[in-house]
Amino acid sequence: MSKIVFIGNSIINGFPYDRNQEFVSLYRQASGNEVINKGINGDTIRGVAGRFAQDVLAYKPDQVAILTGTNEFIYKEALPEQCMKEIAYLAELARKQHIEPVLLTPLPVDPVMAKSRWMVCDDVDYELVQEQITELKKRMILYGKENYVQVIDTNYAFSEYVEKVGVQTAYYDGIHPTREGHRFLAEIIGRFL
């Protein structure tokens, strides 16, 4: 049995559902591993870095799964290269403490649904957010290959899932998965962890 901390934003936290309905809890139930959820709604890589010692290192897990990248681009807090630098820093920090880092690529957004259901304001360009997510994903995959860090391409898997079941089934609001979407993510995580 492994101890795994999942840290990141509202996708980890399970917004807008109860904690036991998000993919982290579903993965915990299916795997039997000791799984700790440290997702916070609205969090960015800056916030994750600020709480990494208390929310990850203090638990001395076998692995840490990091999922971030969407809020940085929605709130214009960081560009993909800055975001990747911080993620790489946290991955190295974990390794120094003998914790295996696992990077989860940020989920794609559906720009049309996000604009009408998530933040209905003119200053968020969800097409640009989607481009930045794609750029961060590429950087994460390259970093993983070059540094022997496991990267689970949840972005690609969820994109395929959306194509198969449709936007309405996959997304609650164009950014966050539905309950069905969380069940799908739990299956994907179970295949790789």
From TrEMBL:
Pfam families membership: Lipase_GDSL_2
Gene3D superfamilies given in the database record: SGNH hydrolase
InterPro entries the record matches: Ester_Hydrolysis_Enzymes, SGNH_hydro, SGNH_hydro_sf
Top-rank taxon, per record: Bacteria
Domain (SGNH hydrolase-type esterase): residue spans on this chain: 6-183
Protein name per Swiss-Prot or TrEMBL: SGNH hydrolase-type esterase domain-containing protein
Organism for this UniProt entry: Aminipila luticellarii
